[in-house]
Design brief:
This protein has 352 residues and is an alpha/beta fold. The chain has helices at 12-15, 43-46, 62-72, 85-96, 109-117, 134-144, 164-176, 229-235, 246-257, 260-283, 304-313, 336-349, and strands at 29-30, 79-82, 100-104, 121-125, 148-152, 180-184, 206-211, 223-226, 288-289, 296-300, 316-317, 319-320, 328-332. It folds into two domains: 22-39 and 261-349, Alpha-Beta Complex (Aspartate Aminotransferase, domain 1), CATH 3.90.1150.10; 56-257, 3-Layer(aba) Sandwich (Aspartate Aminotransferase, domain 2), CATH 3.40.640. It is built from twelve helices and 13 strands. The structure holds 4'-deoxy-4'-aminopyridoxal-5'-phosphate (PMP). Residues 34, 84-86, 107, 152, 156, 184, 186, 211, 213, 218, 223 line the site of 4'-deoxy-4'-aminopyridoxal-5'-phosphate (PMP).
Length: 352
Amino acid sequence: MNKFNPAFIVRENIKKLSPYQAKEIPCKIKLDANESPFPVKLSDFISEVNIPLNRYPDPEALKLRKALAKKMKISYTNIMIGNGSDELIYYLILTFGGPVLYPIPTFAMYGIIAQSVGVKKFESKLDSDFDINEEEMINLIKTEKPRLIFISSPNNPTGNTFSTDKILKIIDTARKNPSIVVIDEAYQPFCSDRGFLPFLKDFDNLAILRTLSKIGLAGLRVGYLIGNENLLSEANKVRLPYNVDVLTQYIATAALSKFYAQIKNFITEIVKERIRLQKELSKIKGVTVFPSEANFILFKVKNSQNVYTKLIKSGILIRDMSSTIKNALRVTVGTKEENKEFLKVLNNILGG
Ligand code: PMP
């Protein structure tokens, strides 16, 4: 009998994909995935957990939605929870289809999911300051008629926010198309401006994506989509039943109440460290640092891949971005001690 090869029957658009970088590189200091460096452990919550595991979780995740709604002073009916915001990006593309439009370089999942679902994608290059190319985006909206536009602000991996005016013009143009603009605010908690929540009341084609992953709970997998009820009720049609498990719902709800002050302190600490790390990085000869409003910093060095490998050899893992931005590396803000060690090793590598 011939050997069965599943690759023969894979859909064409999946053939061209490779899995999201999921490889684990052992390291002493992990600054590659934009996680929080501060430990939040299951034991912080588990002592009071008495949850029946023989029952399915609340399919509506009501308590968690209400806890989030209270924080943002909006109604829980304007919130949908996902198994990470990745899942919500998937649901949005599955629901509204394509074409999908987004600026690049940006978070890879918009393109990966569009391709795996089999919808067309259009990419608009950021300008030399990594701001959005408003004219090109607006042209693409008018000519290609995307159904969904994803804008990550602050943007991963560049770290900057985009001009609010430009985004508002894009949302306005998209509304007439009609298309939905999703502002991905995964890094909003580290940002000095207020983001797009205040504009939700002005635009019914605007949705906002947020996540608990970057503020200390990446292990839980909780993302949330904020938007008007009509938009959410369409996306709810493709949501898998019980997409957020019972422990996740419980812990996330608890974290938002009794641990929220601690989460906020961690965020303040990360922002303080980001500012310090930025300053220190820019003092190192041969390093070009880009402004950041997130919990990571993009920088350039000559022979970046070589520098990346040498950092790994010293037990420090950051992200090599050179395949998207020439000579670029992205470092997540760690604890004070981790950042110090990273700066010391980088300085040594660059001969400082
Ligand atoms: N959006 C952006 C811009 C991101 O950088 C990430 C994570 N790298 C995500 C969404 C996904 O976050 P989550 O862990 O909530 O799936």
